[in-house]
Amino acid sequence: xxxxxxxxxxxxxxxxxxxxxxxxxxxxxxxxxxxxxxxxxxxxxxxxxxxxxxxxxxxxxxxxxxxxxxxxxxxxxxxxxxxxxxxxxxxxxxxxxxxxxxxxxxxxxxxxxxxxxxxxxxxxxxxxxxxxxxxxxxxxxxxxxxxxxxxxxxxxxxxxxxxxxxxxxxxxxxxxxxxxxxxxxxxxxxxxxxxxxxxxxxxxxxxxxxxxxxxxxxxxxxxxxxxxxxxxxxxxxxxxxxxxxxxxxxxxx
Length: 253
Description:
This protein has one domain: Rossmann fold (3-Layer(aba) Sandwich), CATH 3.40.50. 32% of the residues lie in helices and 28% in strands. It has helices at residues 48-55, 78-88, 104-113, 119-132, 148-161, 178-193, 205-208, 236-240; strands spanning 4-17, 20-33, 37-41, 63-68, 71-72, 89-93, 166-170, 197-202, 213-218, 221-227.
């Protein structure tokens, strides 16, 4: 393994439910190299969302340590975690989380404000990210004027415009039809090919097969951590050739 991006050691996470402490993670050990594309799978209640929140510096472990690209983050303050998120992590969610009153360009620019970039630099970087994702003719459209697949591309552009070291995607194809979802997976594979570390949290085994490696959780522990066999690996661009073109839309009914 080359440079380590994610180093999780004996991490636990407990939540208080009234007078009862409920364990969500029970001693997770996980190492992910820089540039890997990894799927984290598990049923509801397995702890995968809790683990994603810790990996993305949205939450802290109850015990154990977490190093993000060699930086210990387990005991950082809220403001320190926010600074690390802004500098190192890009998030992509199933629900897109775009601001409806802003255009695609403005949505992508918004987090760059907190990076301290000037207006010109923000605009140039946001435009470049959107063009890279094939949205050069949608820069000034608002979310309600875009298909589901296009909205998710805007969300990806927003995540990568800040040039993060780690991209975390939580069920990124869950609200999309098959073709739009496959197009999004093609984008992730392109990001991976460019050396960006990509972690996809999913319950869908077909989505996971687009990754190099699958980590499976159950009841707050890692029960399997396997490389995807070459014969099982799915190349999104090849899958797309087998899918019919769909009308403009892209959101599941």
